[in-house]
Amino acid sequence: MNGQESSSRLALYVSPEGNDAWSGRIPLPNRRRTDGPLATVRAALAVLRRERKDAASKTGATIQLRGGLHFLAEPLLFTHQDSGSPWRCGCCAEWKGMWDTGLVVRAYRNEKPILSGGRAVTGWTKRPLNGRKVWCAEIPEVRDGTWYFRQLWVNGKRRSRPTLPRRGFYRVQRYAREVDQKAMFWARGDDRFIYAGHDLLPSWRNLQDVEIVLFNYWLENRMAIRDVRADERLAVLDRKTHCSMLNDQKVNGESVGACYRVENVFEALGRPGEWYLDRAEGRLYYLPMPGEDMRNARVIAPRLDRILEIRGNSPDKEPAQSVCFRGVTFAHTEWRYPAGKAGSNQAACDVTGAVRIANARGIRFEDCRLEHLGSYGIECAESTRDIAVIGCTIRDTGAGGVKVWHGCTRTLISDNELRDGGHVFASAVGILIGQSSGNVVRHNHIHGFQYSGISVGWDWYYREGNAYGNVIAYNHIHHIGGRTLSDLAGIYTLGVSPGSRISHNLIHDIRDRREGVGCWGIYLDQSSSYYLIQHNIVYRTRAGGFFQHFGINNEVRNNIFALSEEMQVRVSHNEPQNTLCFQNNIVYFRTGALWQKRTWKGIAGNHERVDGNLYFNANGGALDFAGMTFAQWRAAGFDRNGRVADPLFNDPEKGDFRLNRKSPAFTLGFVEFDLAGVGPRRRKERV
Fold first, then answer.
1. What's the average model confidence in pLDDT over 264-287?
2. At 346, is the secondary structure helix, strand, or coil?
3. Lowest mean pLDDT among 60-69, 121-130, 338-347, 412-421
4. pLDDT surpasses 80 at 148
5. Under 8 Å between Cβ of 444 and 412
6. What is the pLDDT of residues 111-135, one digit of tens each?
7. Strand intervals (E) in 552-602
8. pTM
């Protein structure tokens, strides 16, 4: 588009100060205030549909949004009626020709319009509470039962409900009744448990509004409390947990209880930035942060679960198509329990998006912001193709950033920043791709998620699937995981994915909760197959730089894996087929094992091609090659052309892995690569 729009296009304007009775053909009210911009996008769509109905053919249109908050009474819905004519574009990198009849919704000039699913909370007064004065706002709709919210933003910052314990977690002590411990991990749920000491109190105000948030391995569960029986130390919940309330660790032969926190405890309200909504009183309590004056603060609570839906009637006959959003902010949505369950499946895949696209093609989001949300940002839900998310910022989300689900193809996710997610659904990821093919994920900056940065594939078995030809390249992924969940990675894959590649990514600072099952930079989980992994730098991960659980014919070449704490490389399953080629990589470390000890037990050596790698322990300690010395390792058929030597990095402790020209890596065939261009590019550099 390059910002060029034909003068023949229909142009409409929408402003918070507009009027839906006006024509919408001018950006400002006239002097007599008899005409001017429309007040709502919904009215602009109605005008567009009337114009197109009367016209002999579809014309292109632009809806320009003036700056400020556009509060929505209901989610916006774009259908095939709002689309352009069919277009012949074959890939999402090529958009020429489609905008002659397409619809563009964009910011007016350099203004900052915000499409908000929330509502401003006003009328703040001071009231005494527990010997101190707090700010309060009366909300009649809450008292009447027509509105309840679980999130709040003050001056553009997410604020939290009072939570216990103040630090760390409580622990489930044991199940309250017998549960089949031989069942699968996610089939051992229940709606009650025994708690410790006085962790829960039946005297808490509005007890049924208190929520338990339970974390175990890679899942979180959310349940409201139904009852607390102090004499039995029994917590009764409003639904069964989605996973086990115990983990596989043993202390004195007993399983360790899962961690949990307790949210929305009125009696715990006491820290600046905390709030509590008393639904019986219809009153919102808030303790301001230093410097906040509630008399002029902008406080917004969410009302809608979704801001925008783009939905065609069918993917081929009547798709929604040729719609572009530029420079628009989507903000302030609520979250709900997925389908009445306590939690989602892995990666919060059941959680929807604030923007949802289905039965659509040729939809583009460019230089937009999606923030202050309760769910994923953008969701390609079903039967979409050639969707592009370019140059956007997605932050402060209850779940993840972009979700591309089963049946969608050729999505371009490029040059975006995705950060600060998982506030509600900790298991969400920055970019989630299911059984979906032909996607390109490149030049993104992904950080601040509690589970994984990118997850792709979504099949646990060796069978032909629909996740092929995916490209993950030039992404900067860091500070993923925190200390809440485990079994996570910077880049995580599942399933048979021929033609897929992971290249030129910079991945570092990946953490997990140590009692879990680990975290890695690149993690090929169950049946991940036919991946080419090359020219990546992975460093400062807790469990390891690279892990293949099991897979077929994966090639790991010319990467740098450095400074992991527990181990550097792990391959966990012995299988009869060719599983892995690990060649011409550099592995540099100071602590932990080199190769995981159980990796090669019983392997004859012909199913894993491991050769030409350079290894170095910077602390000078011994190198543990799966329980073997380097000589024994080579005698077993591995790294006969490999070496143990200092690779001569420039400054690895500071993340500078440039090689001295005298590095022995070059004699082994290592090809130096440049990752200076990872992450989002400037607009003029985008392709």
1. 96
2. helix
3. 338-347
4. yes
5. no
6. 999 999 999 999 999 998 877 889 9
7. 554-557, 560-562, 567-571, 580-583, 586-589, 593-595
8. 0.95
In DSSP terms, which residues pair with 308 in a beta bridge? 76, 355
CA distances from 658 to 1, 165, 477, 562, 671 (A): 38, 45, 19, 13, 11
Q: Give residue 187's pLDDT.
A: 81
Nearest-angstrom CA–CA distance, 559 and 555: 11
Evaluate whether 578 touches 553 at the Cβ level (below 8 Å): yes
Neighbours of 184 (CB within 10 A): 9
Distances (CA, A) of 42 to 30, 106, 193, 285, 334: 22, 15, 48, 34, 21
Sheet order of strands, 152-154 included: 118-120, 299-302, 152-154, 157-159
Q: Hey, where are the domains in the chain?
A: 1-117+304-428, 119-162+269-301, 170-266
Cis peptide before 165 (omega within 30 of 0): yes
Nearest-angstrom CA–CA distance, 480 and 511: 6
- The β-bridge relationship of strands 259-263 and 170-171 is antiparallel
**What is the pLDDT, as a whole number, of residue 600?**
54
Say how many Å lie between the first and final Cα of the chain, rounded: 12
3-class state of residue 156 by DSSP? coil
Give the pLDDT confidence of 30-78 residue by residue, as tens digits. 999 999 999 999 999 999 999 877 765 567 899 999 999 999 999 999 9
Of 372, 421, 356, the residue nearest 220 (C-alpha)? 421
Whether residue 606 is predicted with pLDDT greater than 60 in this model: the reply is: no
Where does 141-201 show beta strands of DSSP type E?
A: 152-154, 157-159, 163-164, 170-171, 174-175, 192-194
Residue 443 has, within 13 A of its CA and on its CB side, a CA count of: 16
pLDDT category of residue 4 using cuts at 50, 70 and 90: very low
Q: Are 373 and 331 in contact (CB under 8 A)?
A: yes
- Which tokens go with 218? 């890679």
Number of H helices, E strands in the chain: 3, 59
Instruction: Answer whether residue 98 shows pLDDT above 70.
Output: no
Is the confidence at residue 471, as pLDDT, over 50? yes
CA distances from 614 to 81, 444, 670 (A): 60, 30, 9
Instruction: Report in angstroms the alpha-carbon separations of 523 from 120, 435, 480, 495.
Output: 43, 18, 13, 12
The three-class DSSP label of residue 677 is: coil
- Is the sign of the CA dihedral 82, 86, 90, 94 positive or negative? negative
Query: Which residue has 């230093």 as its token pair?
Result: 290
- Which candidate, 71, 89, 76, places its Cα nearest to that of 48? 76
Residues 79 and 320 sit within 8 Å (Cβ to Cβ):
yes
The CA-atom distances, in angstroms, between 49 and each of 55, 189, 200 are 10, 50, 56
How far lies 6's CA from each of 14, 62, 101, 426, 438, in Å? 20, 10, 10, 45, 32
Residue 441 region, left (φ>0) first, then alpha (ψ -120 to 50), else beta? beta
- How many Å apart are CA 98 and CA 6, to the nearest integer? 12
